[in-house]
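This part of the workshop introduces the protein records we will be handling. Backbone structure tokens are a discrete shorthand for how the chain folds in space. Once this layout is familiar, the rest of the handout is easier to follow. The record below serves as our worked example for the rest of this section.
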Amino acid sequence: MKTIIKIFFVSFLSFISFIQAQENYESQVEVFLIDSYVTPELPNRFVLSFFTSEPVKSKVLIEGKYEFEVSNELTDNHKTEIDITDLGFLDDQVPFIILMEDSTGEVYKSEQYDFIMPYEVKVDRESNFLLLCLFGGTVLAVPSPVYIRAKDDNYFSLTKEIPLLSFRSKSFIYPMGYFSLEYSHVFKATIKNYLRFGYKHVIEIPGLEYIAPGVNGFTNFKGYNGISPEVSLGLFRAFSAFTVYTRYRFNAKPGDAGSEFHEFSIGLYSSFFTIYY
């Protein structure tokens, strides 16, 4: 068991080093922002103009979910006006990033910028936002099914994870990482209920959504305490705000031989209700 835990932590630290190296990498294409504002009159139009240090094609990604083309040909002078009247935003300060592609097909991302809406975002005005809140609340209440393989038997479990605090990434699509609280109920097992608290580090990968190594501490509040390293794989996005993922987790109570058990699960991830830092 100790060997498995050591191997996991070495891999976990390697992942952290990799993502930090990626985040410290500065884009070879610089963006010089000129205008980024929203017209106060209806229809509300997002006016965006910027220069780049070399000719590129460009798009803008607003709030991590609305993508619009700016320049479909190679240029260093980029301008657009986008009708955003019917778009629903989470706040009146709206984040966006600029996506660029050079002549070789290399893709770059700018730093995150913001524009201010000329009115206060209200739920009764944004029906799409209200619908997303209601759907998000439903998803928040739905647990994930889990298959458990233990030394003595196999079990079925339901678990629910709630991301509490997330750290913003440069892409804004997924957080750099997050702390979460999780409750699990294991049917027909001797120990049926667990509460976990842990951290997941999110690494966006091409072809899929992300890979997220993490580690948790767990307890049943009756003396059964342990650790549970894990790794999740984001498979694809659903309804823009949710990601279908699969997860493997190893659980053990240190010093208690034979306490190990393995979890295989599938679920929906969303940071819709998390607190961002």
About this structure: The CA atoms of residues 155 and 189 lie 7 Å apart. The chain has a mean pLDDT of 83.
